[in-house]
């Protein structure tokens, strides 16, 4: 008696073994790994920090504030602005206006600048609440108060005519002093 030929469905099922699936997927996995490695190699030398131009934010704060808004100007090379924000967009005449600018310093640390005519403004409170006084320092002929924040960072602050200026961050004292020394009345 003749043995019947196996059906095509049985032959197909016999070919669907785990070893055959691995052999089929291996080239796809290798191609995917090569694409990932190529993309990582292409972007490995790129700078990941995106700079911003704070000029329009400063200009808006100057136009809406009821006080002469100071801001850092003429910082040495290596100080790169990475953020700028103000609440002046919604401000009406007589409202408090706060300006913040964040910098990446030459050493790769953060230096933040904040100014407000509201001593209770959140950016000011975030730095100064719980900070301990260290000493008064002279920076560019101006008296500044040096503090240590609850996070252990240095903060430099001064207040004049109801306007609070704060320079703080993880940057070194010298870098923070450089930012503080650059604070001058901004032009709109």
Annotation keywords:
two-stranded antiparallel sheet; 32% helix; alpha+beta; 188 residues; single chain; 2 domains
Structure explained in plain terms:
With 188 residues, the protein is an alpha+beta fold. It has 2 domains: 8-43; 55-185, Phosphorylase Kinase, domain 1, CATH 3.30.200. Helix content is 32%, strand content 30%. The protein contains 5 helices and 9 strands. The protein has helices at residues 8-15, 18-43, 55-64, 122-128, 173-181, and strands at 70-72, 80-86, 98-104, 110-116, 132-139, 142-148, 154-160, 163-169, 183-185. The strands form 2 sheets. The protein has a 7-stranded antiparallel beta sheet with strand order 2-3-4-8-7-6-5, sandwiched between helices. It has a two-stranded antiparallel sheet with strand order 1-9. Strand 5 (132-139) and strand 6 (142-148) form a beta hairpin. The longest helix is centred in the N-terminal third of the chain and has 26 residues, at 18-43.
């Amino acid at each position: 008696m003749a043995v019947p030929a196996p059906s095509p469905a049985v032959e197909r099922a016999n070919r669907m073994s785990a070893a055959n699936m691995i052999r089929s997927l291996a080239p796809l996995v290798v191609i995917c790994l090569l694409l990932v490695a190529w993309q990582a190699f292409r972007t490995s030398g790129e700078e990941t920090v995106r700079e911003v131009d704070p000029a329009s934010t400063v200009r808006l704060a100057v136009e809406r504030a009821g006080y002469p808004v100071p801001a850092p100007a003429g910082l040495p090379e290596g100080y790169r602005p990475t953020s700028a924000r103000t609440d002046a967009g919604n401000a009406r005449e007589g409202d408090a206006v706060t300006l913040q600018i964040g910098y990446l310093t030459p050493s790769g640390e953060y230096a933040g600048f904040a100014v407000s005519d509201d001593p209770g403004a959140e950016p000011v409170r975030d730095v100064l609440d719980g900070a301990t006084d260290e000493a008064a320092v002279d920076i560019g002929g101006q008296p500044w108060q040096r503090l240590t924040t609850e996070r252990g960072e240095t903060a430099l602050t001064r207040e004049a005519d109801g306007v609070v200026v704060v320079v703080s961050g993880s940057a070194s004292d010298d870098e923070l002093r450089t930012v503080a020394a650059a604070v001058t009345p901004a032009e709109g």
